[in-house]
Amino acid sequence: MICHLKQQNSDLEISDRDILCVEIAGLCHNLGHGPFSYVFQESINQYREENGGEKWENENATCEMLDYLLAENSHIEKQFKDGEIAFIKDIIIGEPKDSNKPKFFYQIVNNKTNYIDVNKWDYLARDSHFLGIGKSFDHERMMKMSKVIDGEICYRDKCLDNFYDMFYARYRLHKTAYQHKTVLLFNKLLGEAFKSADKHLKIFEKVDDMKEFTYFTDCILEEILKNEDNESLKEAQNKLKDIIHRSYEYKGTCKVGKDQGKKEGMLFCEANLDYSAGKENPLKKILFYKKNEDKSFKYKPSELSNMLLLPSEFQMKIVYCFEKKKVA
């Protein structure tokens, strides 16, 4: 992506070192994920909210892990020039905190402006392929039609349908895979197992020590399960066994009141589905340009409605109800 943008506009100040920094940021941007990715992130944030701690973000953990790895490999750290490590971390976070480069650099790996970046293209293409559901958008075409105008990445206007397909593909993956009802159930049980096991294994403290965090892997499940004689891990073990034995059965969708979720033997899991921008239409945030023009524009909501067959709402919440199977 960065090489393409440089090709498109030779006047852009993009050095070979800049390209290297963007590539390293792309390579390292997920270093901070714990085991089971966002499931763990949600668990630790629930724990911190209950205990008055600050919200934990995997992007910040990524930067801390990068610092730790460089400190452990000083021969690599010495190869960076002044300000380059800060620049890499800002690309990962998606905003210039400690570096001062044109805005487009921070829109490549983690674009907080309009949710279009190479990270999204990567996982949407890969997951669609391996789940066997195909991919309706062409990220190669999007990249080919991109260029920098007034310091920001813009796209050719005729890519509009392609972007709609991309956001729909994201929604579809969340509905059929990432937030599938069984996935949500297992995530909930896994989070409860982490929370219970933390009293003994101090799971949530590991994110504050990068050396400890390095060895914090999916093996945490075996660590919980193998200590059968440890009474303090019984509850966590039972939660994991509920996953292994599929102890809950799906009862349908429902509306959950404040106290209903506490009903014995019942679990409620909420899917929160959208097109990347919550209740908003994400297409209205994209900067476009017309053929042979060097000025950018955004489509108005009314224009988008005339050009595309859009949903009436861009966000949907579904609550799934599960009941624990009765032991014969």
Q: Key features?
A:
flat, Deoxynucleoside triphosphate triphosphohydrolase SAMHD1-like, 3-stranded mixed sheet, dGTPase activity, 3-stranded antiparallel sheet, 328 residues, 14 helices, 46% helix, mainly alpha, dGTPase-like
The major pleated sheet works out as:
3 strands, mixed
**Structural classification:** mainly alpha
The helix tally amounts to 14
Strand order of the largest sheet: 1-2-5
Helix and strand run: HHHHHHHHEEHHHHHEEEHE
State the share of residues found in helices, binned by percent. 40-55%
Overall shape: flat
Query: What's the N-to-C terminus distance?
Result: 58 Å
Low-confidence stretches: none
Question: Could you state the oligomeric state of the chains shown?
Answer: single chain
Strand content: 5-15%
Protein name: Deoxynucleoside triphosphate triphosphohydrolase SAMHD1-like
GO biological process, one term: dGTP catabolic process
GO molecular function: dGTPase activity
Organism: Octopus vulgaris
